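Hi support team,

I'm filing this because I wasn't sure whether my run with glutathione finished correctly. The job status page said complete, but I'd like someone to confirm that the output block is well-formed before I use it downstream. Pasting the exact inputs I used:
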Amino acid sequence: MPQLTLYHAAPSRSSIVHWMLEELGEPYDIHLVSFKKGENRQPAFLAINPMGKLPALRHGDVVITEAAAICTYLADEFPKAKLNVRVGDPRRGIYLKWLFFGPSCVEPAITERAYPRKDPPPPSTLGFGDFDTVVDVLAKGAGAANPYLMGAQFTAADVIIGSGLRWGMMFKLLPEREEFKTYVARIEERPALKRATEKDAKLQKEQEAG
Ligand SMILES: N[C@@H](CCC(=O)N[C@@H](CS)C(=O)NCC(=O)O)C(=O)O
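And here is everything the job wrote out:
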């Protein structure tokens, strides 16, 4: 079985994949990359991800970057964990919508809110449209989650959207809507998320000391 290695800085967007790996239940190892030491901008890491960004995941000879792509890949590659919605399942379209909604709508909307532009482009030219609409769509999805976005099944889409909601509320960049709080409280009960968070706290200390 090819080895899974997560290139990681704790905590960062690679924590999303760390949580996903804990959900997956397959053996993996972690290669810490220090932002403080600029390791992500050094040739050794740029050969892995020319963007100089984390996360990156190595699976045997394959390297995957972009958190949502990595989570989609892992869910499909290890179907035993039941974290994907398979091709042919009518729910797959909605599943993919949420996986893409994270990086293409939630993230840029939050960043735009954190760093507003003096002359923002018209909403029709922005992939995410506008912040309030993104929040409303998210609130509708989170409010309908029963208990998860895809119903009874927890999937990679919950890892992506759940991470975005947790991160957005943590930094007060998303409103504390009742739908968000209830959904986030539910996913925070996941043992895999608790394990990843605990491990990240230890890794963060390790990285800060190093
Ligand atoms: N689009 C990427 C974004 C990754 C990203 O921006 N990662 C940040 C950490 S949270 C990073 O590596 N920043 C370091 C840098 O840009 O120098 C993804 O979703 O995986």
